[in-house]
Amino acid sequence: MHFQWYPGHMTKARRMMQENIKLIDLIIELVDARIPLSSRNPDIDELGKNKARLILLNKADLAEDALNDEWISYFKEKGYSAVKVNSKKGGGIKSIQSVIQEACREKTERDRKRGILNRPVRAMVAGIPNVGKSTFINALAGKACAKTGNKPGVTKGKQWIRLNKNVELLDTPGILWPKFEDQEVGLKLAFIGSIKDEILQTEELAAELVKFMKSVYPGVLEEKYDILAVEDIYGCLRDIAESRHCLVRGSELDTGKAAAILLDDFRSGRLGRITLERP
């Protein structure tokens, strides 16, 4: 499978981020806790040179907790502030305000020495599509001020959100980068739903997920779908179709529907806490 998705609005969004970077003190970069490395856009590092940085491992409840901690240590060793959060349920959100102030302490000190007092920290919230930026902003602000949706491409333009007198946030659209050098990265992004499903081969994608689950989380699919362990990847999809009564024309197994069910179960955490990459 070949993965590529870079619609025109992403070029525009990247340009907008470039133009606004001079107004920013801090970049808050959201990554998906299941793929903390693959869900980092290399362009954001390029844009954010010389800015304070905070990485949030979002959807931490969907990933293995011990591995979340390993990833936090990994990012801290690289010199970033890093915190795990679960924006949907509000986990870790309360600590964010103090983490933002801590990440910008040097800037605040510089301002104070120059006689600039009480200027709010301006933070840009950035990340790839469908990583949960708008949900995070709404959880932090305590109200629905950014549009949310569980599909990529909901936030189209920029919007400033004043959290309080200390922090202002700039919400930005999710952007990928023009070319995935490593197709493994594209595969993982497709697994979590950051690439539009409409342009993907659902059955091939599900087959790749079956392959991963069998090697790293053996027994999970068998238990979840009440099926026997089989070596054959597509045989496993057929068994899931049978177990979930996915049929076309009465008796033929609908593996396409089974593939969609499997991907949905993975993305929503119904297969359990699964981490796709390790530090």
From TrEMBL:
Cellular component annotations (GO), alphabetically ordered: cytoplasm
Chain sites annotated for binding GTP: 58-61, 86-87, 130-135, 174
Coiled-coil ranges from the UniProt annotation: none
Protein location: Cytoplasm
A single GO BP: translation
UniProt keyword list: Cytoplasm, GTP-binding, Nucleotide-binding
Domain CP-type G: 10-178
Molecular function per GO: GTP binding; GTPase activity
Family as reported in the entry's similarity comment: Belongs to the TRAFAC class YlqF/YawG GTPase family. MTG1 subfamily.
Role description: Required for a late step of 50S ribosomal subunit assembly. Has GTPase activity.
Name this polypeptide is given: Ribosome biogenesis GTPase A
Organism field: Candidatus Mediterraneibacter pullicola
